[in-house]
Amino acid sequence: MRILVIGSGGREHALIKGLAADPLTTELHAAPGSPAFAELATNHPEYSQVDDPARMVELAEKIGAELVVVGPEVPLVAGVGDALRAAGVKVFGPNKAAAQIEGSKQFAKDVMAAAGVATARAEQITPGASGEDIDAALANFGPNYVVKDDGLAGGKGVVVTQDLTEARAHVDAVLAAGNPVLLESFLEGPEVSLFCLVDGETVVPLLPAQDHKRAFDNDEGPNTGGMGAYTPLPWLPEDGVKRIVDEVCVPVAKEMVRRGTPYSGLLYAGLAWGAQGPSVVEFNCRFGDPETQAVLSLLESPLAQALDATASGTLDQLPELQWKDGYAVIVVLAAEGYPASPVKGAVISGDAITDPEKVLHAGTAQNDAGEFVAAGGRVLSVLGHGADLDAARAGAYAVLDGIDMEGGFYRTDIGAKGHDQL
Ligand code: GLY
Predict the structure, then answer these.
(1) CA distance 16 to 30
(2) CA distance 22 to 97
């Protein structure tokens, strides 16, 4: 099967690595891709406008793609899935209407309310609201203020703070950009990222993971797209995944069908595991980054077969997914200045950087000398495996010890609290 993967980051590198290992895959392409993918896929850097449905259809038709796997949310929310399906190309990823589960926080809240899914209490503030109205709305929340841009914001939309002035400043900034704001109550409990393949009402969970969103150790510093992750979760109750599927993902999948916008693709449930069990923090309409790099590294079943079954509407016939034993840890090496203003161009060195079993490239380019250089905020996703979480952590940090990048930084505590979160 000839497969086109849309995207260029660490998540897409992990998808490409997984797809390349499946004998069902005969040819792999990436748009725009990344120099680091070149061993496994043909890059199409001239197709960098991944949110342009017509361009993506043009490329899919040009290469005769039999399946398109859409990595990031932006093309899905822009309707790339709809355009490809209209052109008769199979797609892994929801149509625009269903991608609203990530594209609009208020839409997700409405779906959850209709489906009876536990989530944070929320209040929307729309552009044009008076200062008094904003203050009155904020007074209904705290001491932890959760302030969200209602739309897509590339990982920069959410501020969680105890500082009312900072909360108000984020409300003002989002409204000034013309977007509604969602204020939410703070959900207590450790975070879980559960990715599910969804095809209508059929829901197949992958391994649960935990992301680390703050930039620095001990969950300090600004929110980021994610600085590291581990999987599975030793602290999650034995029935944890089943409860999330039964209480969250299946009701949401059914509600999407009921609305006439059935979901097809990857549903990412971001949850807090509280005293009563799972509550939804957010949904995403695609694989998470960096959790995917860890989760897919433990998948034993063929990835192309699983994504193709989802895209073909035959997920209910997919054999049960098989997983490797043990744990996986991903640690992100970020560029100096990330997340506010990452510095580009630092040369990256180390033997492991060309070994996708150890390192997946999230934001790199090649200079004229052929060296890999930092080209994004999150630069590398460094992988460790082990029979237990400590061994997996040690593996990832040992790989990082052999990598140099001027100004680069990473968290040293990814997975460190993984044993005793409850
Ligand atoms: N790791 C968070 C995300 O993918 O949105």
Answers:
(1) 8
(2) 31
Quickly name the fold that domain 120-184 has. Dna Ligase; domain 1 (3.30.1490)
Q: Which amino acid is at 37?
A: F
**pLDDT the model gives residue 154:** 72
Largest CA distance in the chain: 61
Ligand 1 close to Cβ of residue 102 (< 6 A) = no
Q: How many CB atoms lie within 10 A of CB 28?
A: 22
Give the closest residue to 237 by CA, choosing from 270, 275, 279, 265. 275
Domain coordinates in residue numbering, the chain: 2-93, 120-184, 191-317, 327-405
Nearest protein CA to atom 4 of ligand 1, as residue = 288
Structure tokens at 74: 């932006």
pLDDT at 342: 97
Instruction: Tell me the one-letter amino acid at 96.
Output: K
Q: Which residues pair with 195 in a beta bridge?
A: 268
As given in the structure block, the two tokens for residue 169 are: 């400043």
How far apart CA 285 and CA 76 sit, in angstroms, is: 8
Whether 255 is in the pocket of ligand 1, judged by its Cβ within 6 Å, is no
This prediction's pTM: 0.94
> Residue with the nearest Cα to atom 3 of ligand 1?
288
Low-confidence spans in the chain with pLDDT less than 50 = none
Domain 327-405 grouped into CATH 3.40.50.2300:
no
Atom of ligand 1 nearest to the CA of 211: 1
Mutate to test the pocket of ligand 1, among 191, 211, 214, 223 (most ligand atoms within 8 A of CB): 211
Token pair for 88: 């008769």
Contact 197, 206 (CB under 8 A): yes
Q: Are residues 325 and 387 in contact, defined by beta-carbon separation less than 8 angstroms? A: yes
Residue type, 119: T
Q: Strand, coil or helix: what is 249?
A: helix
Residue type, 17: K
pLDDT at 157: 82
CA angle 129–134–135, rounded 5-degree value: 150
